[in-house]
Amino acid sequence: MNRPEPVQVIKQRRDAMLDRLIGGVPYIQFLGICFDRRGDELTGVLPYADKLIGNPTLPALHGGVTAAFLEVTAIIELSWAMIWEDMESGKLDPDAELRPKLPKTIDFTVDYLRSGLPRDAYARARINRSGRRYASVHVEAWQDNRTRLFAQGTGHFLMPQRNG
User: With a threshold of 0.85, does the pTM exceed it?
Assistant: First the structure.
């Protein structure tokens, strides 16, 4: 009988793969976006920085930053869901040179519900449909209160071809 992997090994593998996903996109680093991972659930985190302000008189987060945050959260969630089984089974090596290919945006619609305040923002994506070629995702963003969204988005994505 095989013993289960130690929890530290599983966490290290998951964290390394998530770092690999987001590490390959310089714009994610520029904005400072990171992800809080709990099991297979991801929450995008956009830490506040002065450079993210679009209207200094309010002040409010730039609309383009908000849209990018939502889109990045959707793409990383889709990628995470796509690689999950291979990562858990050990087929994917987080130390390998090759980065997983990311889904390509077909279209992305943002609803700005209120001004983004000068503070940290959070986002979660829900995959509505994911097939071999196409996926649909809904994303919600909030700041202080999960029930008071400041933006939401819906996107359609072309999925990368899977090997095997």
Answer: yes
Give yes or no for a contact between 109 and 153, defined as CB atoms under 8 angstroms apart. Answer: yes
The answer to whether the Cα torsion of 142, 145, 147, 149 is positive or negative is negative
Max Cα-Cα span within the chain: 65
What strands lie across the sheet with 41-46, from one edge to the other?
A: 34-38, 41-46, 121-130, 134-142, 149-158, 104-112
Question: CB neighbours (10 Å) of residue 162?
Answer: 11
Question: What distance in Å separates the CA atoms of residue 153 and residue 71, rounded to the nearest whole number?
Answer: 8
Rounded to 5°, angle at Cα 112 from 106 and 113: 140
3-state secondary structure at position 17: helix
Cα 94 from Cα 17, distance rounded (Å): 5
Structure token pair of residue 25? 């996109």
Dihedral through CA 76, CA 143, CA 39, CA 28, nearest 10?
Answer: 30
Q: Mind listing the pLDDT tens digit for each residue in 34-44?
A: 999 998 899 99
